[in-house]
Design a protein that fits this description.
alpha/beta; about 375 residues; 2 domains; two-stranded parallel ribbon; about 40% helix; 14 helices
Amino acid sequence: MEAYNYQFTALRGIQAGREYYVAMCPLKLIPKIFLFDEEEIPAELRAQRVLNRARVPDIARYIINNSDDYIFSSITASIDGEINFEPLEEHGYGRNAGILTVSMTSRFLINDGQHRRAAIEEALKVNPDLGDETLSVVFFLDAGLDRSQQFFADLNKHAVRPTKSIGILYDSRDPLARLAVKLTNNVPLFKGLTETEKTTISNRSTKLFTLSAVYQATQALIAKKKGDKIKSGDYDLAQEYWSMLGSVIPEWRLVIQKQISTAELRRDFIHSHGVTLHALGLVGRALLDIYPDDWAECLQQLEDINWLRTNPLWEGRAMLRGRMSKAGHSVILTANAIKMALNIPLTTDESEVENTVLSSRVEKG
């Protein structure tokens, strides 16, 4: 070995007949020794995807804002260079625990975790005290480009992102997520009728809305962004609004009273889908802004709206060619129709969508 080396306390393991090592690495070393393919070279000559720099600030803020409570999974890296593993003992459990020595001339290539690495670098600029904390690193010995590319493919092949709904359910840091969960436990329209794990609802499901749909609709209603502080008044307002809608819309009253199945509602009506719930959140926001004292009275007119999917009003808005649409413009166009039914004036942007997007959809239809 050379005179200048990196040394890591490490555990040795075996996968597919090859040795690998798990070590603790100080955060301040991670930006210095770990590299990833940043060069503008063809994908077939790289062992990683190109870094998406738009993701880095969000991850860095997560570390900085939660310096007492953040958590990261291991980085996986390949070592291209000379190494030596010296076990604590020759036999027994101690033979797989020891000191991993790596030549300083070695090249460390990240196979999984390049965004975490870049975010750590940014976070350290703001809070250098994080530098002495550690992150576990899984080291493999480099076996060339083909092997490194296979590492990346294997590590990501079976990775599945959690659904938006379950992410909201488990997110204790986002006040809006906590609000949405609280609403599903207390609002008659949502209680027992909210799918908290999936972002889609099957035809046989007994649920009416997804938690992610409740989250988006409530976000529109109270005009808050993710991470914004939620006041008690925000919760009271949201609970009152959604509870009142549950009593005003006839079919929602029936489903709360278990006189009609959720499957029937989702099959026949547009108001039992996330796009309409989101639109009703936007409508509620407009009512609160224009009629802060009389908004509840205005809501009574929703009882007279024909929510059936067969109503031509919804084609090009909540629906495209007979199917429910999840597009952003569909939410606005659905909200526009409800606003016009309630005699609520449209904003300039809403009118623009009405005149351009809707007319275009009608022509294509």
